[in-house]
Amino acid sequence: MEKSLEAIIPEIIFTEGSADIPQPIAKEVVSVVLQQLRDGVDVKSREEAVQLEQKANEKVKDLINSNNLKSGSLHQFTVSLLKHSKDPRRLPIASRLFIIAFDRDPLTMPDPTAATMQEGSPLHAATQWGTNAAGYNWASMVLSGQASPPVGLHLLERGSAETRDAIKDQQAAAIRVYATLATQGDAQGMLGMGRILLASARKTDDGKEDEQTQKAQSEMMKSRAILLWTKAGEKGLTEAWFELGLLSLNSMKEGSAEEENVKHSQTAQGYFERGADKDNVRCHHALAIMLAQRAMMDNTSPSSPERNLCLQKAIEHFQKAANLGDGQSAHEVGMRYLLRQEMLEEIGLGSESDGRDAEKVREQAKERHLGLWGVKPDDVTAKEWFSKGADAGFMPAMMNFAGMLYEGRGAAPPVAGEDANVVRLKELKKAESLYAKVAAQAGIMAQQQQKSMAGGSGEDQMASASAQMTAEMATFAQDALGKVQEAMKELSGEV
């Protein structure tokens, strides 16, 4: 059990202070649920499985209460577990812990739309001990297919009507949690219910009823989703502004009047700005993408004030998102400072025949880079942002950071008395570690993507392309790893 706990619960949860539960208590809590999940495989009836879960629930609650902790602490620990743990067992464990922290059985919760309820009135089956956010997270895990299966599901015949009904009942319970929370004015519940309504609107669009009825039903659901998300945003849930911005962007269609698409784009930008004002990471990133695309579409002049302003604001939003922990945004900043080899090749590396030397070619490339991205190329700055993206676990940033380390680009000037070969070897070891991580992670991801694909639809084709790109990244990283190791061997002979 101890080895399993060490694999499931990473140390960083406690060293970074994101968990409100002391490490020994956290291990006890997880061990209770893990043991219950293991024992549940051997039960002979659903009633026995339910009793096993209930005993585990009470034991976890007793552990929390006896250590003067609250359900919110259990919820926060579970969020951290999902964020930092890579062990596949974290998913069923987390969904069980969310249910315990919620302190309600979603399967027994009534449909809030079937009764008249006022915003702010007590929740059905509410307890003073439970945390609503835990219920929202459990429902989100169920609807994304990440939660532990319905209790006793393994006792049913695979593919049977009873199995399908049990899964549908769990999904319906998740939607009821969203609906109940939304009815009570809970911002996360509103966010979740808005997503359900939007998904239903898309299904209505694909239905077989007459076109006019479909459109009316779809628009009604979209309007309700917009209303819920707007209320959630006004209550301080910044993710709602991102959802509203994304919905507006997705409303832009080819063949529509330009004025209509411009209106949707402006509306989206307004929503993203509201979220970015509250430092929502995804809103910062989305704004940066919109502004960068606008600059690239500006054909007036590479140095036009409007274009340069868009580029400047884009990089500012990327930087803000990166400083909030978004690895992809950090990578985008790094790419804007990196002088790329293809730009040098486009200009030409210089030769005696055209009278240019390599340095003049580089200066021309730098000028073109400045006109394209709005910043001067700088290897040191690019390397710093790639390092930041690598620390966040974004694989393209890890690859570019490793590449710069291998090539010696952006290296700090040597310190007096420091052995240059020793410094170089440290850089190569860091590059080796990064390439090894990418090769392993991308390889696993590619295998998982291949397994999850069915085949035939457009989405499957996109998934296939994504799996191929991930596999190519794994291959490239593996090849680069070999080159780095060869360089280390050569250098070690000189140290």
Detailed description of the structure:
This protein has helices spanning about 1-10, 10-15, 25-40, 45-65, 70-85, 90-100, 130-145, 160-185, 185-205, 210-235, 240-250, 260-275, 280-295, 305-325, 325-335, 340-345, 360-375, 380-390, 395-405, 420-450, 460-490. The protein is mainly alpha-helical. The protein has three domains: about 1-185, no CATH class; about 240-325, no CATH class; about 395-495. α9 (about 185-205) runs antiparallel to α10 (about 210-235) and α13 (about 280-295) packs antiparallel against α14. The protein is globular. Belongs to the sel-1 family. This is HCP-like protein. Pfam families: Sel1.
Topology:
Layout: H1 2-8, H2 12-15, H3 23-40, H4 46-66, H5 71-84, H6 90-102, H7 132-143, H8 161-183, H9 187-205, H10 211-234, H11 239-250, H12 258-277, H13 281-297, H14 305-323, H15 327-337, H16 341-347, H17 358-373, H18 379-391, H19 395-407, H20 420-452, H21 458-492
Helix pairs in contact: 3-4, 3-6, 5-6, 6-7, 7-8, 8-9, 9-10, 10-11, 11-12, 12-13, 13-14, 14-15, 15-18, 18-19, 19-20, 20-21
